[in-house]
Amino acid sequence: MVVMAFNEFPKIWLYNIFILLLLILTSFGCNEMETDLVWLNNLPSAMAQARQQDKPIFMFFSATWCGNCRRLEKAALRDDETVTMLSQFVLLKLDLDESPLTAEQYGVQTVPMLLILGSDGTPYNAIFGVLSPASIRSFLVRGQLAYDEAMKQEESDE
User: Fold this and answer.
1) Catalytic residue (one of 57, 69, 91, 103)
2) 82 with 120, same domain?
3) N or C, which end of the chain has less CB nearby within 10 Å?
């Protein structure tokens, strides 16, 4: 039988309570990123917001039955650097089965599919599949550059 001095007992409990609180607070920090991304769920609303905010649209086509879509959303789209870059876009998430006309309009035949659109719906970049955070960031940069170039051209035409 182990006998513990009375004054040592509270130290062990305080240490355990500290570790438990640290784990709880850490888990809240991980979930916090989930609420940072605000996704719209229809193209006309996204286009209106993109015009109002003068931003391109990041469109994420997914499906409830798509395991790769869930993996992409839970990993690569939660990466801190990617989330920071996504703040420069209006975020639109559409379900392939619920938005078949929009999917057809943009040639979406497989999910996950990511597109960068202008506020008028013009596509500037598209990619599909499960991507790493670095690949998504590269995709975002290329899409943003194409969008910016088109906006400069549009301004010079006016």
Assistant:
1) 69
2) yes
3) N
Neighbours of 35 (CB within 10 A): 7
Domain that holds residue 20: 1-34
40, 47, 57, 66: which is the annotated catalytic residue?
A: 66
In this structure, what DSSP letter does residue 125 have? Answer: E
Q: Evaluate the CA torsion angle 49, 51, 54, 59 in order and state its sign.
A: positive
In the annotation, is 66 catalytic?
yes
Cβ atoms within 10 A of the Cβ of 89, count? 21
Question: pLDDT of 103-157, one tens digit each?
Answer: 999 999 999 999 999 999 999 999 999 999 999 999 999 999 999 999 999 888 8
Phi and psi torsions of 78, nearest 5°: -110, -5
Determine if the peptide bond prior to 112 is cis (ω within 30°): yes
24 and 69, same domain (yes or no): no
Find the CATH number of the domain harbouring 54.
Answer: 3.40.30.10
pTM over cut 0.85: no
